[in-house]
Amino acid sequence: MPRKRTDTAAKVLSPVKATAWRKRRKGERVVFAGGIYDILHPGHVQLLEAAAALGDRLIVGLNTDASTRRLNKKGPTRPINKLKDRLRVIAALACVDAVTWFGEDTPTQLLAKIKPDILVKGADYHPEQVPERIHAGRLALLKLKRGYSTTGLLKRLTS
User: Fold this and answer.
1) Is 49 within a domain?
2) Do 109 and 101 meet the contact criterion of CB atoms below 8 Å apart?
3) Residue 150: enclosing H or E segment and its boundaries?
4) Taking the chain, what is the end-to-end CA distance rounded to the nearest angstrom?
5) What single DSSP character describes residue 73?
6) What is the number of helices (H) and of strands (E) in the chain?
7) Which of 3, 33, 82, 108 is most buried, by the most CB atoms less than 10 A from its CB?
8) CA-CA distance, 29 to 92, in Å (whole number)?
9) pLDDT per position in the chain (159 positions), as tens?
10) What pairs with residue 31 in β-bridges?
11) DSSP H or E stretch at residue 59
């Protein structure tokens, strides 16, 4: 029997379509995870799978390329992969129901429209470092997989 093909590209939604997607999810617990997700690694997968387990639907918001470059800790050479490519890779993950983007340094404006039930961040954050949490029902800080980071991976590749 041939394998069923899935068009995961359909999970990539503009911010306007992501807002409409959320409105159609009344009665479902929607979880939001934001980030750059530049070079996908097991730490990203673990975080997104744990985020998805908290609710009925997971939507991921990616920083645009310009937003990523503005983040001091990432630097001018990041992202390695362009937004359209990062969106497509994240959309292909089984645990992700939708993926969109935001151009600001934080997803505050997007979250104000989507209003997720749960906002997920890595446990390397403290609640006071996540002001956009006011637009979610609650904030969940999830444990990160030790030894995995895109910055660390890039350092190993260039040394």
Assistant:
1) yes
2) no
3) helix 150-158
4) 47
5) T
6) 6, 5
7) 33
8) 21
9) 776 667 899 999 999 999 999 999 999 999 999 999 998 988 899 999 999 999 999 999 999 999 998 886 666 778 999 999 999 999 999 999 999 999 998 999 999 999 999 999 988 889 999 999 999 999 999 988 776 666 666 666 677
10) 58, 118
11) strand 57-63
What's the domain count of the chain? Answer: 1
CATH number at 138 reads 3.40.50.620
Question: CA Rg, the chain, in Å?
Answer: 15
Quote the domain boundaries for residue 93: 8-158
User: What residues have CB less than 8 Å from 1, skipping those under 6 apart?
Assistant: none
5-33: pLDDT as tens digits = 678 999 999 999 999 999 999 999 999 99
Q: Which of 9, 117, 14 is nearest to 61 (CA)?
A: 14
Token pair for 43: 């730490």
